[in-house]
Write a structure and sequence with these properties.
Blueprint (H helix, E strand, L loop, with lengths): L11 E7 L5 H14 L4 E6 L9 E3 L5 E3 L1 E3 L2 H7 L5 E4 L8 H11 L3 E7 L11 H7 L2 E5 L1 E2 L6 E2 L1 E6 L2 E2 L13 E6 L13
Parallel strand pairs: 1-7, 1-8, 2-5, 2-6, 6-7
Antiparallel strand pairs: 3-4, 9-10, 11-12, 11-13
Helix pairs in contact: 2-3
The structure holds zinc ion.
């Protein structure tokens, strides 16, 4: 990575963004480990909505695990962060607007905030609060995956339901369906279309 944080004065907000399978969690864990080695007090959070893996761990795809607090809302992050120097937040796209205020406040209290999240949803559109967080951040790193179709650099997350591209208005959770995601490049990404009902 071109950017290596060693010392933060006056607080610091850094973002790790990208599509699915771009290694965001791994990169966040790498930074967290470095801070732990430097004897900084580190706490890791993730939203309750993410139930794909272990309930209380940030799990990266290469199997590295770091303990994380699963929280319902950003106010909990603020309360639990008081005694810490470095605050890491994974899957930030699932938090509501309140996270923006909480992150700014924590940075103003001289803390370093490391945020990982999806920059685009399965439609290829900006994901919830992520554009705002990217704007207020002191540093942004955009990671890439490899397109599963052609092998080019991938920046999009293709959502598939029963192996077909999910329609634009497909619900967040499709009960009973086999849902998968694939990293794809701009050329291979099949933009979800609106289906009239
Ligand atoms: Zn491709």
């Amino acid at each position: 990575m071109k950017f290596e944080m060693t010392k933060y004065e006056g607080g610091w907000i850094e973002l790790i963004v990208g599509c699915m399978f771009s290694g965001k969690s791994e990169e966040m864990i790498r930074r967290v480990k470095r801070a732990i080695i430097a004897n900084q007090k580190v706490i890791v959070f993730k939203p309750k909505i993410d139930k794909r893996y272990d309930k209380d761990k940030v799990v990266s795809h290469n199997g590295i695990k770091i303990e994380a607090f699963v929280v319902d809302n950003p106010a909990e992050i603020y309360e639990l962060s008081q005694k810490y120097d470095v605050i890491a937040i994974d899957e930030a796209q699932f938090f509501d607007n309140e996270l923006i205020e909480v992150v700014e406040q924590l940075a103003n209290e001289n803390k370093r905030i490391i945020i990982a999240g999806l920059d685009q949803d399965f439609r290829g559109e900006p994901f919830s609060i992520m554009p705002h967080l990217m704007a207020i951040a002191d540093s942004v790193d955009k990671l890439h995956a490899i397109c599963v179709v052609c092998g080019a650099v991938a920046t999009k997350s293709q959502r598939l339901i029963e192996n077909q591209p999910a329609p634009y208005d497909s619900p967040t959770i499709v009960v009973g369906a086999i849902e998968t995601y694939q990293p794809r490049c701009r050329k291979c990404f099949q933009k979800p279309v609106k289906v009239k009902t």
